[in-house]
Amino acid sequence: MPPNARSCSSAGPTTTVVTSIADLPKHVLADLSNPGVWKIAWNIQFERTVIREQLGIDIPIAQWLDPSVLARIAGFSGALALASEVLNPEGQAKSKEGSQLIKLFSKQGKDWNDPKYAEAWRRFQHYNKQDVIAERTVYNRLQTFTPSAFERKLWELDQRINERGMPISVEYVRNAKEIVDRERQRFMAELTTLTGLGNVNSVKQLLGWLTGRGYPYSSLGKGYVAKALEGPYVVGVSEALKLRQALAKTSVSKLKAIENRARDGRVRYSYRFHGSHTGRWSGEGVQLQNLPRTSSKWGEDEVNVRACFQAPEGHKFAVADLNSIETLELAYLTKCEPLLSVFERGEDPYVDFASSWFGVPYADVTKEQRQLAKPAVLGCGYGLGGGELVASCCRKPVCACGKNKDVVKGGLWGYGESMGAPLTREQADDAVRAYRAKYWQVTDFWSKVEAAAVEAAVTGTARQHFGIVFDAIPQKFLWVVLPSGRRLHYPSPQVGANGRGTELSYARKGVYRRKLYGAKLTENLVQALSRDILAEGMLRADADGLTIVGHTHDEIICLEPADSTDALARLIAAMTAPVSWAPNLRLKAEGYEGTVYKK
């Protein structure tokens, strides 16, 4: 048992255990083995692993409860330090020196019997006790947010998926890493020779060298480097930027993360349940949800990060993703008939919008026109304007935060560029006008949900719009009951006035004030319900005996026997079966089977 192991009952005194495993109190061992006793821990992975590996007790997931999940469901931070600051006004918060003490005794292994560390050891014992008190206090105040039976079942599935992990090809990762390391050394040598700098990895040094030779930006972010390379050629600067661009490829960090987290051939614990405010999962470690879609060139070789994930011998991946799920959900929520009819006809929403925007028949829409229409369909439903040049730090035309960062394209203008569909500023403005005219029910929905949320926040009286219920305890909580029955929570809602009328805001994670307006609410609702649709599909797939090893916002990844003949069909059936709260929603999914993960 590590020297920082700690335990406490739900209401009794706190005890720090510092002796050997043999000295653990008998009642603690009995409780750990008793299926009738809840095991409660903040981010349970650590405790589960220690108890399994050190005590030989493999406690089933069904016996655990994680208060960090309750905190995230309630709209607070999943970090104990932040959550306890907000929820422990009496001062029973997590100690801030804990990480230093953990490093001293649990990582560096300092001897707590050494008189030199006596005072630190006393503080470490106090930290352990205080940490458990903070966890217990936060948990007691969050029990109202205990997950529903459906969410509990989903969380248990999430834990099993995290434990299974995504399989990798150790050989492919090793070879890819060798290629990348070799080429990085070559690029760094060339950049050092070109610039004469002592450390080309230093952003400060390289940026100083570049700006002294005409580089126009104060950042070496990939977007700025790309824009500079699109401009006039500058001797030395252009070569240096190309080398910097090569060194900053996503594959470098991804390969390192895979290597660090997959020592037994599996990348585990990559998903954080309810990691985002809308209930979606967030990524951990390798960040499987944002792997690069294409290969990257390294000298004469190519490296594809997705290809690191390969099925072991005798198995294959079955992968499927839902078609245009957010666009479909937006149409369903807003009762937007022109958009709903696209799905009823089985047509492509990007082509449909391009047809009306460019004034050409559906069948005559070109690939380029569809590509330009895609960012409008994906972004304009959430209030994107045409766009203007804004400060990258605060997204204002004139910097309002004092950081004075470089200017970038905002709105649909910038969004399209980030998606590889560069619109002119005029095209972006025109697309916004066309979208709002064609899908006017969407913009109407913005104003109605905002009005309902504001009224609920002010009066504490429930308001309903299109099957969505807004309710509140003024100044304390605003919540939204989704058609799926799940709630979204917004702590500390406030309604004030701005130059255009009423402004609603809330305390994101219980700490940071964020504006909450109609289009942002719409985005939250769409993402939340899209997540709930995927969640039902995951549970159905699991119940059907499929082995889920990964997922993204609209995709499920299963690992199945190589001789399976119906895995993909079963997965698609699970994902597209009618959802309980919207049985008429026309869900579609497509997928593939293979030994290598791809997009």
Tell me what the structure shows.
This protein is 45% helix and 15% strand. The protein has 4 domains: 6-146, no CATH class; 170-308, no CATH class; 311-325 and 461-599, Alpha-Beta Plaits, CATH 3.30.70; 337-438, no CATH class. It starts with 5 loop residues before the first strand and ends in a 5-residue tail after the last strand. The chain has a 4-stranded antiparallel β-sheet with strand order 21-22-11-23. The chain has a 4-stranded antiparallel β-sheet with strand order 14-15-16-17, covered by helices on one side. The protein is built from 21 helices and 23 strands. The chain has 599 residues and is α+β, with helices and mostly antiparallel strands. Strand 18 (494-498) and strand 19 form a beta hairpin. The longest helix has 26 residues, at 170-195.
Summarize the structure.
The chain is 45% helix and 15% strand.
Number of strands: 23
Mean pLDDT: 90
End-to-end span in angstroms? 43 Å
Largest sheet: 4 strands, antiparallel
CATH domain topology of the largest domain: Alpha-Beta Plaits
> For the record, what CATH class of the largest domain applies?
Alpha Beta
What CATH architecture of the largest domain would you give? Answer: 2-Layer Sandwich
Number of domain units: 4
Can you tell me the overall shape? globular
**How many distinct helices?**
21
- Overall radius of gyration: 27 Å
Percent of residues in helices? 40-55%
Instruction: Give the helix/strand class.
Output: alpha+beta
Task: Indicate the low-confidence ranges by residue numbers.
Answer: 1-7
Spatial strand arrangement across the major sheet: 21-22-11-23
Determine the strand fraction and express it as a percent band: 15-25%
